[in-house]
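Example 4.3 (complexes with small molecules)
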Amino acid sequence: MAHFLVVNGPNLNLLGSREPTLYGTDTLADIITRLEHLANSRGATLTAVQSNAEHDLINAIQGAKTAKVDAIIINAGAFTHTSIAIRDALAAVTIPFYEVHLSNVYARESFRSHSYLSALAVGVIAGLGPIVYELALEAALRRFAPAR
Ligand code: DQA
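Answer. The structure with DQA bound is encoded below.
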């Protein structure tokens, strides 16, 4: 059975009320519930973690190796643009990962155009709102839990 980990970084716990014109009105719980249903409907399982602390995110990524996670979907929030440590953790576990962003990071401040993660990602989906998570999960499902 395929197993996926969804990692959300700082301030994404505020989804729903945080800058809704940029990030939409769905809460993180709404998004995770939809992802769980999608995964379960395809015979896969999904675990989600959110933290505002870089070390928690790194520990979650490291733990994914022991937990035999097949793929990671990650929105590292602002750590995307700053964290060599999260990039190193993803490189260390060698688990395929999909980078997502709710907003179009390329249409915003120039510092958001650079990601420390993208070069290692299977793919990057940005700017489509909460559906980015489902699109990334769909890609992971097709690769790791194809219909029989
Ligand atoms: C974000 C984009 C980042 O630049 C920002 O710091 C976030 C959210 C997004 O989902 O659009 O926290 O990752």
